[in-house]
Amino acid sequence: MTPVVFVHGFLGGSQQWQRQAEDLSDFDVIALDLPGYGKNARLDALDSIAGYADWALNELTARGIKQFHLIGHSMGGMVVQEMVARAPGRIARLVLYGTGALGVLPGRFETIGTSKRRARADGPQATARRIAASWFLEREKDAAYEDCAVIAEQCSLQSILTGLDAMEGWNGAERLADIEIKTLVIWGDRDRTYPWSQTEQLWQSIPDANLAVIPESAHATHLEKPGLFNRVLIDFCAD
């Protein structure tokens, strides 16, 4: 069975994918921790999306993973688009989840510039908890919020600011039509980070793209509606 590789988003980490690892038990699941995040929070964050893509491909090569299904969430969705541009032959199927082709994040709950200013003023832990709350429809009341906030709190101020810079400087829109891999676009219909316009752009611009909209969920659909999310994912990867 082809391995499934998960790439987390901004302030995320591999531990966010535990429910997916459990439900995708027939697959070899590999959840990465990007430099500066999660279990790799001690490492310096990288200053470009392309840098994260190179790091991820090298990490998978070091683990002996040659071909794989690839899932990217939020900032991780930008990273996997860069991975496709660099090594399309290694990726069997592509899932772009809660993400888009523009790093400036038009329609986000706040601008990237605002996030930078508030991070400097409030500190990394308060910033991590505040942003993590925006991922859930029920904000801090969601059962999965606290675990996500704890993962996010591991990020330093350097990781937060560098990650925001990396996103702000990235644009993958011109390469969407070049993606020849069968792709699934997943979006929570109440996402506060990525509006429908970004999702529609992916769906309409990638030649072989399908769309799954998960109702009554925000940016952390895989945690808010894990059963439905996982069924859609398994169906796509096992086809």
UniProtKB/TrEMBL annotation:
<dbReference type="InterPro" id="IPR029058">
    <property type="entry name" value="AB_hydrolase_fold"/>
</dbReference>
<dbReference type="GO" id="GO:0016787">
    <property type="term" value="F:hydrolase activity"/>
</dbReference>
<dbReference type="InterPro" id="IPR050266">
    <property type="entry name" value="AB_hydrolase_sf"/>
</dbReference>
<protein>
    <submittedName>
        <fullName>2-hydroxy-6-oxononadienedioate/2-hydroxy-6-oxononatrienedioate hydrolase</fullName>
        <ecNumber>3.7.1.14</ecNumber>
    </submittedName>
</protein>
<feature type="domain" description="AB hydrolase-1">
    <location>
        <begin position="3"/>
        <end position="226"/>
    </location>
</feature>
<keyword id="KW-0378">Hydrolase</keyword>
<dbReference type="InterPro" id="IPR000073">
    <property type="entry name" value="AB_hydrolase_1"/>
</dbReference>
<dbReference type="Pfam" id="PF00561">
    <property type="entry name" value="Abhydrolase_1"/>
</dbReference>
